[in-house]
User: Which sequence fits this backbone?
């Protein structure tokens, strides 16, 4: 069973459907107790960094998430769920502390000629960690779907699994031990996204 965390994020239904298509048995969870027995956890997200962290705190899920990650079982963060893994964010003068699972901060795209913020639409990923199990069967240069104005800047370049160009080069996904996270939306990325989710589901079995 994969626990899909529900803290009021708007894209929960599409992630749920995509995980089902990838072969997962999914439980939507809102409390730490409901996470019990999960073989994997997915933290989706749209919207603001602070809203995500405050909602998780209200539902007493922050400590539960950290405990789950420390257990060594697979975790996948999507979009804001990726950003939440870091220590802090520059978004809207954020005052919320991130989970701190990965060192670094979340920053906004710098103004660049010909680049609109937010980035909305398809863009390519360059796979720089081909050993990452999330990208089995996925070619470097594949297109995935993004919707974001901010992105994480990891302190350790070794955790960066893919890079993407959008006015500047940014870490479009990360991998560290049992923690996987993508700035793009696998549930909106059609064939490539479904393969990625299948790979994650396989890690939980």
Assistant:
């Amino acid at each position: 069973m994969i626990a899909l965390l529900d803290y009021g994020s708007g894209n929960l239904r599409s992630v749920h459907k995509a995980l089902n298509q990838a072969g997962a048995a999914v439980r939507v969870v809102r409390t730490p107790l409901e996470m019990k027995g999960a073989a994997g956890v997915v933290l989706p997200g749209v919207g603001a960094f602070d809203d995500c962290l405050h909602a998780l705190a209200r539902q007493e899920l922050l400590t539960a998430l950290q405990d789950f990650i420390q257990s060594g079982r697979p975790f996948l963060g999507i979009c804001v769920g990726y950003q939440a893994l870091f220590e802090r964010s520059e978004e809207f003068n954020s005052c919320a502390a991130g989970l701190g699972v990965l060192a670094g901060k979340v920053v906004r795209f710098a103004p660049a000629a010909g680049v609109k913020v937010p980035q909305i639409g398809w863009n390519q990923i360059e796979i720089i960690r081909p050993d990452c199990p999330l990208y089995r069967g996925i070619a470097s240069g594949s297109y995935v779907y993004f919707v974001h104005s901010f992105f994480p800047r990891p302190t350790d370049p070794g955790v960066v699994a893919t890079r993407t160009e959008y006015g500047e080069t940014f870490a479009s996904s990360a991998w560290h031990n049992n923690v996987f996270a993508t700035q793009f939306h696998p549930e909106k990325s059609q064939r490539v996204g479904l393969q990625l989710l299948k790979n994650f589901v396989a890690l939980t079995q």
